Amino acid sequence: MTDSALAELSDTLFSVSVALYSVALLAFCAQLAFGRRRARDRELVGAGGPVVEPPLEAAPSGGNRWGLLGMGLTVLGVLAHAGVLVARGMATGRLPWGNMYEFATAVVLVAVVAYVVLAVRAPGLRHIGVFVLGPVILAMVGIGLFLYAEAGPLVAALRSSWLAVHVTSAILGSGIFLVSGIASALYLARTRRSASAPGADTGILSRLPSGESLDRLAHRTAVFGFPIYTFAMIAGAIWAESAWGRFWGWDPKETWMFISWVVYAGYLHARTTAGWRGRPAAWVNVVGFAVVLFNLLYVNMVSTGLHSYGGV
Amino acid sequence: MTTTAPRQAAAAPPPPPAGPSAGRRLRALLLRQWRRLTAMRTAIVLLFLLALAAVPGSLLPQRSLSQNNVRQYLADHPDLGPWLDRLYLFDVFSSPWFAAVYLLLFISLIGCVVPRALEHARALRTPPPPAPRNLLRLPDSTELRVPAAPAAALDVVEEELRVRRYRVERREGVRGPELSAEKGHLKETGNLVFHLSLLALLLALAGGKLWGYEGSILVTEGQGFCNSFQQYDTYSAGPLVDSGDLSPLCVDLEQFTAEYEENLTAASFTADIRYGEPSAEGRPTTIGVNDPLRLDGDRVYVTGHGFTPCFTVEVPGGTSFEEVCAPFLPSDQQTLASEGALKLPDIPGREEQLALRGFFAPTGSMQGGLLTSVDPRPLAPQVALQAFSGYLGLDSGLPQSVYSLDASQIERGRLTEVGSANLAVGETMDLPDGTRITFSGVKEFAAMQLSHDPGQVWVLAAAITLLAGLLGMLLLRRERVFARADPGAGDGGTVLSLASLTRGGGESGSRFALLTDDLRTALASAAPARTASDPEVPPRD
Ligand code: HEM
Predict the structure, then answer these.
(1) Measured in angstroms, how far is the CA atom of residue A269 from the centroid of ligand 1?
(2) Of A173, B370, B418, B470, which is most buried by a Cβ count within 10 Å?
(3) Low complexity: which segments have biased composition (chain B) (predicted)?
(4) pLDDT, tens digit, for every residue of B27-58?
């Protein structure tokens, strides 16, 4: 295939993946609407007996075909989504994260893959499919509309092997943080309901995994993402030292990466500090989510700094 | 936090008449505040404050990034600007309040981590703590009934745990023989390494700021510079830098090459330079974007490039200036359209000074009567020149940019325009007084920067240990396992209570279940043989 055909294929796959995610979203909606309630009481543990912590989430009751369908479609969407980047990479003969369009597409891909991996390991998490795919589709549409950039070569400053190291780890870290943030947001929604009206635990939200497992999911993903993000920051500093003549210069992008790093450090602290556990810590994580999003979008599109290259 | 602290202190009950002395009370108060400052909660609040404090630094223009943008902002916001400036909002990262936040955070960190490190050092040398009184209260706990005698059963448990690299301590407790085991001290070590690395990082940063400096200069092909503050266009230096102490280094730019892709994306910039001590011949090398010259403690970068048009000026009366050149600053990075000025203050036999102001296009094209640039490569260089005659105001005492004419001199009529023309290379314009100005050619210039940061390698080292500590802290687990053997209900067997305590790393329950399964198997296979021979045999060593 020629480069331009590959570039076109990449653009087509983008639409295909959005379409697949949308159908998967419908399936997940159907799961929430028609699925039976899970028997959550199974998690309760008899006193005295061997205490077995529940796995991340108990299996859903009554094999929910809608959920399976949603997962299947999501996986197909992931394949198309990955194809967007692979075709881009082949068309341009470089890593497919040289501009905002490609970078943002990759971050969203990481978020979906992280979700799929978690949901395969803990089937109960399929119930949050709607809340993952909803933002994902919004993000993809936004990326397609506002960030789209033609396939093209890299500017000189980006031609460095640090692109692979720094940007890849930043993509991984940000994508994982997004999943963590969604889990914390759902945890907040979930626990608000049961806190305000403990008896009335019905409705869509009650079909979500338990608050405890959402909180644990959020923490574990954040713990996974934090070292990666830290590494991305260090790699970025090393690259900046050779590209811009200083390893840290409070460029807007650097500043916001620092801010989000500090917020996630705050979240990890909050999780282990009496008085901050639970909802306050979850709020910190949601703030982290907002900061990462802000960093992904606003900083590149609106402010001008050394990082604003590669279109948009 | 900062607001509640004084209030609580004020609300403390008044001292009883015969209370402790003022000194003691002061000490108690200080101690209380110190505890408060070093509490985890304070750390969280301070982390938040730090994040918050960094926000204006990215939303408002900063002097450290661009003096021009700050000046522009102040001009656009004459009312608000000065107030923001008074609050250091254009110098956020060097402001006292930003420093206050991170210094408080780091004091809190010291107060938190140093005692913890001491305690950890002690813990490394002391055996695992005795088992809690009621093991079954722990979240991961169970009871096993085994046929072996208490001591033999604990032997088996000890063996199984040692294989798993636990440190095991046997004790004779009030409630029977018991065992404590522990592994995973590295987790705590990781935590301490991480937090101490943060301190080291801050110190290295501070050292770099104090003893580091940076100078930048535009160098046209064929020219060079030496490392001294007088030579640089702009420089910044830490307070402890002695300007006589700069490393003796000179750099000459021989050739600058910019390459472009078909769609005019910049592909590479390289500068062929010679460098060495001032008197030495100089070693040749090539530097470029992402590829600076690294010497012992100094680095030389190419941070940008542009064009330097050259002119020949022939003044009536025989004086002529051959090849006077001036770098023109790019006003558009895509097409490298540039603007600049050339000043000729000293023309022999003439009162008036001469100046040229110009717009340079590496590949010029006339659009609507105006010269514009359509390509960053010098394919068809052209300048749109204005010539001025009069008084430049260079010795007026006010600093002037070398890259532009002082507009106020023109407004005041001290400088008057005496001619203008668009010139391609080799073309000449004639001024009314007979002066001939020829656009003789164009060279490239490189924006070069020399940086000296003695803290940099230490920052890198601290960053690496920081990451290692972080991985240890987040990925490792600290596990304690306790077991207590109770002689069973008279059948010669034992009721073994087992419990574990885990810090870090997710599902402790399933791992505990695995451990108990293994122990049960081991106890089942080991116990009968021994009980059959002699139940009271003391444990082998
Ligand atoms: C300079 C800013 C700081 C950063 C970036 C930072 C970062 C972190 C991170 C990422 C963790 C991991 C939490 C986990 O295990 O999930 C942690 C743990 C911890 N930090 Fe900090 N920290 C900072 C300052 C402090 C300060 C000032 C204190 C003391 C008041 C402190 C005390 C602790 C303690 C005790 C833990 C262990 C928590 C536990 O595992 O139980 N840290 N820190």
Answers:
(1) 5
(2) A173
(3) 1-11
(4) 888 888 888 777 778 888 898 999 999 888 88
Residue of A251, A245, A239, A250 whose CA lies nearest to B451: A245
Task: Say what the pLDDT of residue B462 is.
Answer: 95
Which range scores top for mean pLDDT: A124-133, A191-200, B368-377? B368-377
Mark yes or no for CB contact A270/B44 under 8 Å. yes
Fill in the amino acid letter for B237: A
Indicate if ligand 1 lies below 6 Å from the C-beta of B506: no
Contact status of A223 with chain B (Cβ, < 8 Å): yes
Q: What are phi and psi of B148, to 5 degrees?
A: -70, 160
Q: Would you list the DSSP string of B40-75? A: HHHHHHHHHHHHHHHHHHHHS--TTT-HHHHHHHHH
Copy the structure tokens of residue B321: 């200036």
> What is the spatial distance between Cα B16 and Cα A242, in angstroms, rounded to a whole number?
65
User: Is the pLDDT at A204 greater than 80, yes or no?
Assistant: no
Q: In a mutagenesis test of the B interface, which of A155, A226, A244, A247 is the best target, namely the one with the most B β-carbons within 10 Å?
A: A247
CA gap B12, B8 in Å, rounded = 6
Looking at residue B141, what DSSP letter applies? Answer: E
Cα–Cα distances in Å, from B90 out to A202, B80, B94, B377?
52, 12, 9, 37
Residue A268 Cβ inside 6 Å of ligand 1? The answer reads: yes
B480-521 tens-digit pLDDT: 888 888 876 566 677 888 888 887 655 677 788 888 888 888
Mention every residue, 6+ apart, whose C-beta is less than 8 A from residue B242: none
Q: How far apart are CA A60 and CA A176, in angstroms?
A: 24
Q: What is the pLDDT, as a whole number, of residue A312?
A: 36
Residues A243 and A155: their CA atoms lie apart, in Å, by 12
**Nearest protein CA to atom 40 of ligand 1, as residue:** A272
- Check CB contact of B163 with chain A, cutoff 8 Å: no
What's the CA gap between B160 and A2, in Å, rounded? 62
A266 touches chain B (CB under 8 A): yes
Look at strands B140-146 and B298-314 and give their pairing. Answer: unpaired
Please give the backbone phi and psi of residue B428, each rounded to the nearest 5 degrees, phi first: -130, 145
Per-window interface: B 349-388 vs A, CB < 8 A: none
Q: Residue B401 in contact with residue B375, Cβ under 8 Å?
A: no
Tokens of A78: 């992931």
Residue A51 has pLDDT above 50, yes or no: no
Q: Where are the alpha helices (DSSP H) in A35-99?
A: 65-92
The span from the CA of B247 to the CA of B233, in Å, is: 18
Looking at the whole model, is its pTM more than 0.90?
Answer: no
Query: Are the Cβ atoms of B93 and A305 closer than 8 angstroms?
Result: no
Q: How far apart are CA B358 and CA B172, in angstroms?
A: 94
Would you give the end-to-end CA distance of chain A in angstroms?
28
Q: What angle do helix axes A279-301 and A211-243 make, rounded to 10 degrees? A: 40
Question: Counting Cβ atoms within 10 Å, is residue B493 exposed (0-12), middle (13-18) or buried (19+)?
Answer: buried
Summary mean pLDDT of chain A: 80
Q: Which residue has the tokens 């002695």?
A: B242
Q: Is B130-183+477-526 a domain of CATH 3.30.310.80?
A: yes
**In this structure, are residues A140 and A21 in contact, taking their beta carbons and an 8 Å threshold?**
yes
CA B212 – CA B200 distance, rounded (Å): 17
Contact A310, A98 (CB under 8 A): yes
- The answer to whether the CB atoms of A250 and B64 lie below 8 A apart is yes
In this prediction the ipTM stands at 0.83
Domain ranges within chain B, ordered by starting residue: 36-123, 130-183+477-526, 213-452
Contact call for residues B282 and B275 (beta carbons, < 8 A): yes
Distance CA B450, CA B227 (A): 8
Name the DSSP class of B380: B
Angle between helices B40-59 and A279-301 (to 10 degrees): 20
> Distance, CA A253 to ligand 1 centroid (Å)?
24
B504 phi, psi to nearest 5 deg: 90, 155
